[in-house]
Automatic annotation (TrEMBL):
Belongs to the LysR transcriptional regulatory family. It comes from Acetobacter tropicalis. Pfam families: HTH_1 (PF00126), LysR_substrate (PF03466). The keyword Signal does not apply. This is Regulatory protein, LysR:LysR, substrate-binding. One of its GO terms (molecular function) is DNA-binding transcription factor activity.
Length: 310
């Protein structure tokens, strides 16, 4: 057969399958984006080539003859097998994808430095990181991107249909760079910290510790009588930490986000006892758990346990 004959045969068989399934030339024409006369004409041409009648024309629709039924059954079986083979080929060449929704601080300061380890263990899984400032205990709006799981800060989520667990509890230390400590320190008393240049994390509906919360917790409820230096505020945590690293002042450091910087002594804690709360980073499974999602959860729990041992 010539290429043109093959193309005509495939087009005719597709048309026959659609007519047989829809039960009328008009319905088949609508599905295929053709006119009813064009469908009728092509079926008539196929019948002429085969020398048999494939469809009985009735007042309302058509019905398959025995020859039409035999050809229709064979065509549908072949098409089904083709679709099955194509699906298998697609699945073999389609990589698994895991989409994780988290905030800027957790992504930049904790997850990204460790993600290469997961990629080595699961080389066939592509990771997509979506960052947001939505907290765990706030309901995401319609603009929140879809994800397989989230790792967000806040109170324990109360969503019965989602599996959730606490990865890290909130634990905070005031921190600064070694250079800033040498130039502006020592900070042996709470009031010494209050006199330093404080770096603030700002944001809508904030539910994390602020400097005001910290001073109140350490029994220094007011700073009004203390000569204050000008302060800086930041809209996301990675920027605040960058300012700390550059010696711009003192910031509140959230574990585990600061653990790597503490370990390399790029920043230092200036108060021994951490503040703790019921808040923390919670992992929530948003989409139906898949094999690679379950493996990611197991992996991130192991990584969190390494932090706990520090």
């Amino acid at each position: 057969m010539t290429p043109n004959q093959v193309e005509y045969l495939l087009r005719s068989l597709r048309l026959l399958e659609t007519v047989g399934r829809c039960g009328s030339f008009s319905a088949a024409a609508l599905e295929l984006g053709m006119s009813q006369p064009a469908v009728s004409q092509q079926i008539a041409q196929l019948e002429k080539i085969l020398g048999v009648t494939l469809f009985e024309r009735r007042h309302r629709g058509v019905s398959s003859t025995d020859n039409g039924k035999a050809l229709y059954t064979t065509v549908t079986e072949v098409l089904s097998k083709i679709h099955t083979v194509m699906d298998k080929i697609y699945e073999q060449n389609t990589r698994e994808k895991l989409t994780v929704l988290t905030d800027y601080g957790f992504a930049a300061n904790w997850l990204l430095p460790r993600l290469s380890d997961f990629e080595e263990q699961c080389p066939d899984v592509d990771i997509s990181l979506l960052t947001t400032q939505v907290q765990q205990d706030r309901k995401p709006d319609q603009h929140t991107p879809p994800a397989d799981l989230s790792i967000l800060f806040g109170e324990k989520p109360q969503v019965p249909e989602q599996e959730s667990f606490c990865l890290f509890s909130e634990e905070i230390y005031p921190v600064c760079s070694p250079n800033y400590l040498e130039q502006a320190g020592p900070f042996t008393k709470h009031v010494d910290i209050a006199r330093g240049r404080l770096l603030h994390l700002s944001g809508p509906d904030r539910k994390w510790f602020t400097w005001e919360d910290w001073f109140k917790a350490v029994s220094l409820p007011t700073r009004s009588s203390i000569p204050l230096k000008n302060s800086l505020s930041f809209g996301n945590y990675p920027l605040l930490l960058q300012a700390v690293l550059q010696g711009q002042g003192i910031g509140l450091g959230w574990r585990p986000l600061i653990d790597d910087l503490l370990g390399t002594k790029q920043i230092v804690p200036i108060y021994a006892e951490p503040l703790r709360s019921s808040r923390g980073y919670f992992v929530s499974v948003i989409q139906k758990k898949k094999e690679h999602t379950a493996f990611f959860i197991e992996w991130i729990i192991r990584e969190a346990q390494k932090n706990a041992a520090i």
